[in-house]
Amino acid sequence: MEISLVKRKAFLHEDDRIRDLKARLTHRDDYATTISELPDHILHQILSNLETIEVVRTSVLSKRWRYLWTSIPYLDFSFPSFYKDMVAKKYPNHSYFRGRLKVFVHLSCQKAFTNFVRRALDSRKGLWSILKFRLFFGETICHGDTDQWIYEAINGNVQELDLTFSPGTREYQLPACLVTCKSLSVLRLGLYFCKLLLPRLTDLTFPGLKSLHISFARLQDEDLFGSYISNCPLLEDLILVECLLPDPKPLEISSNSLKNLTIQDMRRRFAGLWLSKLTVSCPKLVSFNYKGPMAEDYNLQNLSSLDTVEVDLIPGSAERSEEEVGNIIRKMLHGFRSARVLKLSEIQVCNFSPSNFHDINCIY
User: How does DSSP classify residue 356?
Assistant: First the structure.
């Protein structure tokens, strides 16, 4: 009798666990159903944090998700992530690969990645707009492919374009259609120290561009580059990181709309600002951040709106006397006299008087 009673209690206890498990599964199904019933723009926002390869995988969840990924306005293609995922699935023993076999695997992944990007763009061609397009290849890629992808992004009225790749040649000509794109407001470009060639100026030079970020590029024609900056009617943010200048030629940044300017580490051991003159004339400039070698000369003018300046001079390759260094620094700091806050790092300020900076509230 006691044994049967114990069995009955055990059975009831097991029955409770089954009911609890069913309840949790039902709750999970309800949760999944609730997610699927969300409007498209909410799902787009959720999936915008994922790379496109991960977003495409959601197409197997249900009929509701089958074609949802084709309408997402955020496209993010990263070859390192694609390569890692593909190798883990198809070549689980890739860590043991050597020589030609390793090269073969790498090339096959490159080809698969290129085909994936093409198919993804073809699946949405002419149907949906593109808010953001990001391509991070990190390897040599045929610039014919990238130009075609840029063209398709522009046809989708792209607003933010983020490109990092190596064109496979010493020079890369920026597509003319990109320069005249009216919808583009943000452009980030990284070229692994390839020469950046710009098309001839037109009446429409980045007509809607507000933010420009160029990194790891050779500014082959600095005069034309300066003309581009001055002809961008809406440009507010300009960032130059690890860029090269050919020969000791001046870099001029003149803009009636620019508000924030950042120049960082203009290659001290190669052609760069340490042998060049830096000219900045921006009446609406509010923030200026400079980290790099001391330029040959500074011409800083028309900076009446300047609020915050941060300067971090690093040793360059040019040999200058203390007097030359002092004169250059004084001239540079004189151009910042209207700033409210001035931050100086690793810099020897020679013979300059704080009385010249009557509007500055803080110097450190």
Answer: G
